[in-house]
């Protein structure tokens, strides 16, 4: 058996064709969405992701604002970049690219972002609103995973989902999305303290692997027919390696490859978030105009 490939690039292209039209509409109303990025240091992965995000902006007509800081940037340097973007009217949404170098406090940086401009959905207010079931900007990778499952009509309601990894960008928030009433999945979150990872994975209808350990998930762990979403990525001497071993394709029903799966959707949903923020601005302006 060979699994059905969940094509992140084709799905991203569908999202972008709709988004381009929404950007045109906003521009016609005098609002140009603008994405800001703060990148600290020379990590090759982070550099390539940020470059890709700005290439996406050019593709759909979103303005780009870059703040690139050296690897030895201080907290004051980072705070100044964040404060600039908070104050810049051309920036309707922005992100601080993670991970940050060790001398910088990621949580403090995320908390300093104006929650209205938080394009990543990682500000404590937005994560808190998600916990409370209120409308919020949603984290990009979890949003991409849910979209990919829906796009390929993989049943989510009632499904047993095993997530591997407890990071702030994927592992923790994805459980919050998948356990909303609108998704209704049952989620188990595994991490380095999990006693029997194979047993947890083998129970799952959907596996979301976000550990960053090359080929951690192997065919013998996976329930036949399960959907396996490979989110973790490692840069090895042989190139990029996902968390999912190649033999999983022989057992699973669906697999999202890595690269070419969730990564392009992470970028797509970043721009969806930026456009949604700009649309909210327009709605607010219209409301204020009508009220006045
Ligand atoms: N502030 C944030 N930092 C990080 C996030 C995030 O959502 N917000 N997620 C990851 C990295 N990431 C986004 O920034 C990201 C990861 C992967 C891709 C992607 O398009 N991958 C391609 C392969 C690209 C390559 O060849 O290097 C793919 O999977 O096909 C985009 C963005 C950590 N940091």
Automatic annotation (TrEMBL):
Protein's pathway: One-carbon metabolism; tetrahydrofolate interconversion
SUPFAM superfamilies on file: Aminoacid dehydrogenase-like, N-terminal domain, NAD(P)-binding Rossmann-fold domains
Pfam families for the chain: THF_DHG_CYH (PF00763), THF_DHG_CYH_C (PF02882)
Catalysis performed (reactions): (6R)-5,10-methylene-5,6,7,8-tetrahydrofolate + NADP(+) = (6R)-5,10-methenyltetrahydrofolate + NADPH; (6R)-5,10-methenyltetrahydrofolate + H2O = (6R)-10-formyltetrahydrofolate + H(+)
InterPro entries: Aminoacid_DH-like_N_sf (IPR046346), NAD(P)-bd_dom_sf (IPR036291), THF_DH/CycHdrlase (IPR000672), THF_DH/CycHdrlase_cat_dom (IPR020630), THF_DH/CycHdrlase_NAD-bd_dom (IPR020631)
Domain Tetrahydrofolate dehydrogenase/cyclohydrolase catalytic span(s) in chain numbering: 6-120
Domain of life according to the entry: Bacteria
Name of this protein: Bifunctional protein FolD
Organism lineage: Bacteria, Bacillati, Actinomycetota, Actinomycetes, Mycobacteriales
Gene: folD
